[in-house]
Amino acid sequence: MAMEGSAHEAEGAGPAAFGSPEPVADLNWKSDRARRFADGALDLWQEFLDRLAELPVTHGRSDEQVREAVALEVPEEPMGDEALLAYLREVVLEWSMYPGHPRFMAYISGSGTVPGAVADLLAAAVNMNLGAWRLAPSATEIELHVIRWFAEQFGLPEEAGGLFLSGGAMANFVCLKVARDQKAGWDVRNEGVSAGQPLAFYGSEELHVVSDRAADMLGMGGKAVRKIPVTQDFRMRVDALREAIRGDRARGVRPVAVIASAGTVATGAIDPLEEIAEVCKQEGLWFHVDAAYGGPAILADDLRPLFRGIERADSVAFDPHKWLYTPHSGGCAIVRDAVRLFESFAVAPSYVYTDRQRALSGVDLGVMGPQFSRGFQALKVWVSLLAHGRRAYGQRISHDAALARYMGDRVDARPDMELAVPVSLSICCFRYRPPDLEKGVDAEAYLNRLNERLMMEVQLDGRSYCSNAILNGHFYLRACIVNFRTEAEDVDALLDVAAELGARLHGEMRSEGTGEQPA
Description:
This protein is α/β, with parallel strands linked by helices. The protein has 3 domains: 31-96; 129-375, Type I PLP-dependent aspartate aminotransferase-like (Major domain) (Aspartate Aminotransferase, domain 2, 3-Layer(aba) Sandwich), CATH 3.40.640; 389-512, Aspartate Aminotransferase, domain 1. 45% of the residues lie in helices and 11% in strands. Helix 7 (168-183) packs across helix 9 (210-217). It has helices at residues 2-10, 31-51, 63-70, 81-94, 114-126, 137-153, 168-183, 188-191, 210-217, 238-250, 273-283, 320-323, 339-345, 356-359, 378-413, 441-461, 488-512, and strands spanning 161-165, 199-204, 225-228, 254-261, 286-290, 315-318, 331-335, 417-419, 427-432, 467-471, 474-480. It has a 7-stranded mixed sheet, with helices on both faces. A 4-stranded antiparallel sheet has the order 8-9-11-10.
């Protein structure tokens, strides 16, 4: 009876009768506070955009200085909103470097589109998880749509598909895993790579190191990526590729895939895609194109013919956060037949159940790649495409390439500069060469030392920013233009800074006895 009475007494009792926890709302900001904080951040963003061109590309401070300024102790009690915004202002305007600066021409890192940044805010605010369709219906359909549009630009068939990833490293990894699984000749997913003969990938000597890392992560080992010699213009030699494939077959190694570069990181060279596609067809190999940098150039009418043959690829990897200028991070893996992605990554965890007929749900992207939890990386790319349109993108990409060619012409016209190779895509490699330096073996060694020091001095100086390339054993400065803010005056400024600092270093090295005139 007591139990019955207790049940009766409890009937209709409020939560307090059961000792329910009191609400804890400290993290749950109200919309008005969120708006005030966001307004403060937007004011900071506007100031950043207004001041960007006048700021140094980098402040050149040491790791200790930066760490002391930004690595605060986590407070026991909340930092006030005004104090937090003041701290963020210091981070943005005093302790950062700026890849979106018009004179940043170093690494292949886009400038970050304005609508893309706003889209990223909204994506983070809604916080959908694209691992499952029902957790991200609009996000999933947008990502699939954008990928299909990119596949169409590359000339791939309707059944092509793919997904967004963190960048070129993961995009290439996903494509090469599919290649390995399709071409190994056994059930490598379940039995492992040790169950069959050794496997091999093929790429040029200029191939990006992410392919070596992919082979490592795939259990094949970095040496499984055979490095094929290149021509004078740094493109893969197809005759050497055929020879390497024949040699491996004779040694009992199974060739799997050829990785062609559509825009190498050092010079922007594009491998002979049509010829490599034919080799892959004849040899029964997977044809993968690493277009992480160069891929978006298919949107430019004058550059698209350089990529003839990419439409025959079994997979393509490219990065919108490079030459589509969108905010970090976002890479794309596209496979000629999207079903291959499911075959390489699909699993069925017991805790994930959906009655798809009742739920009316679509594709779960979490079973098409290595990630289950996935952010809405496609939104910043999609909104940027909507905001600017295809034509504007094509024109700006073409303009970047024209600026690089202009830079090459300016280098050729200067007595203190030397062009490494003809400009390809939007990369110009050059070096400072003192006009009074004679040619010779010793001169080459000296030029390497001089330009090594010069690159660091340019970067630390902060007025402009370039990187380097090692070509045929020689050290060159390297400018890569994937920045919608860069114009001809910025190109000229980089050359002027390099000449100014180069002349100073040359004088210092002479006085130090490290730059004696070669005999």
